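testing teh design pipeline on a random one, pls ignore if ur not involved
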C-alpha cells in the first residue's frame, strides 16, 4: 500500500501541482459539463473491460481455462507463459488508447460528444496502461509486475521502465491537452479535468463492488489523479495563445447516461457471476 501511495505522489500529485502552478491564469469555465463526467466514467469502465478481456483471451489461446469477471480473473490449467500473459491486459489498454488518440486527431469534424468520448477513451487507455507499468516496476504482485518477474527483469531495468512510463505519461498528457475538446484552457483546464476525473470516480464505484476497498476506490482514484496530473501539466506546457472560451456544441447527456447504465447492468448481471472461456 505504501509503495502505491508513493507512486501516486510522484506520478499523479506532483505533475498536478506543477501543472496548476505553471499554467497561465484563465477566466474560462472550470466546472465541467455533466456529459463530460458521464463520458469519462463510461470510458474508464469500457477500457477496464477491454483490459480484462485481453487478460483472458490469450490464456484461452494458450490452452488455459480462464474466467472473465468484472473485477477479477482466474484460470484453471497450466501453461509455461501464464504469468507472462498477465501483461497482455495492459497491452490491450495501450492499443485502445492509441486507436482513440488517432480518432481524436483525425475526426476533428465530429460532434463535441463524440470528440469528448474519443478524448476520454484515449486518456484512459493510455494512462491505465502506463500507470499499470509504473506500479509493476515497484510492486511485483500487480499484473505487469508478474509479467516482469516472468521475464526476470532486474532492478536497474525496472528503474528504466519506471522512467519510461513517466516520460510516456508526460507525452500523452501534452498531446491530449493539445487535442482536447474541453472548453477550458490554461489553469482552468487543469481544474476542469481534475474535477471531471474525481467526479467520475464516484460513478465508477458501483461497477467495482463487491470487492476490497483498494480495488473499488483506490485503483480508479490512482488512475484518475495520474491522468489529471499529466493533463494539467500538458496544458501548462502548451503556450499557444488562447482568447476566451473555445466554442463547442453542447454535450449530450441522455445517451451517454443510458450507455453507462447499460454497461453497469452488463458488469453486475453478466460479468459478476463470471464468464468461462
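output:
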Amino acid at each position: 500500500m505504501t509503495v502505491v501511495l508513493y507512486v501516486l505522489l510522484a506520478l499523479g500529485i506532483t505533475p498536478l501541482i506543477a501543472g496548476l502552478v505553471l499554467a497561465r491564469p484563465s477566466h474560462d469555465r472550470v466546472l465541467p459539463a455533466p456529459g463530460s463526467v458521464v463520458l469519462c466514467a463510461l470510458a474508464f469502465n469500457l477500457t477496464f473491460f477491454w483490459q480484462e478481456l485481453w487478460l483472458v483471451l490469450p490464456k484461452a489461446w494458450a490452452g488455459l481455462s480462464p474466467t472473465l469477471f468484472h473485477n477479477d480473473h482466474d484460470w484453471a490449467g497450466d501453461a509455461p507463459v501464464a504469468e507472462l500473459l498477465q501483461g497482455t491486459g495492459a497491452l490491450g489498454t495501450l492499443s485502445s488508447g492509441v486507436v482513440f488518440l488517432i480518432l481524436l486527431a483525425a475526426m476533428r469534424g465530429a460532434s463535441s460528444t463524440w470528440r469528448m468520448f474519443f478524448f476520454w477513451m484515449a486518456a484512459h487507455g493510455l494512462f491505465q496502461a502506463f500507470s499499470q507499468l509504473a506500479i509493476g516496476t515497484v510492486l511485483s504482485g500487480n499484473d505487469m509486475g508478474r509479467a516482469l518477474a516472468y521475464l526476470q527483469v532486474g532492478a536497474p531495468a525496472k528503474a528504466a521502465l519506471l522512467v519510461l512510463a513517466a516520460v510516456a505519461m508526460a507525452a500523452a498528457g501534452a498531446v491530449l491537452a493539445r487535442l482536447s475538446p474541453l472548453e477550458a484552457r490554461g489553469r482552468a483546464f487543469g481544474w476542469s479535468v481534475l474535477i471531471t476525473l474525481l467526479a467520475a470516480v464516484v460513478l465508477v464505484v458501483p461497477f467495482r463492488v463487491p470487492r476490497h476497498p483498494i480495488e473499488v476506490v483506490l485503483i480508479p482514484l490512482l488512475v484518475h489523479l495520474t491522468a489529471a496530473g499529466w493533463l494539467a501539466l500538458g496544458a501548462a506546457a502548451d503556450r499557444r495563445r488562447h482568447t476566451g472560451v473555445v466554442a463547442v456544441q453542447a454535450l449530450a447527456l441522455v445517451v451517454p447516461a443510458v450507455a453507462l447504465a447499460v454497461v453497469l447492468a452488463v458488469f453486475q448481471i453478466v460479468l459478476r457471476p463470471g464468464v468461462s472461456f
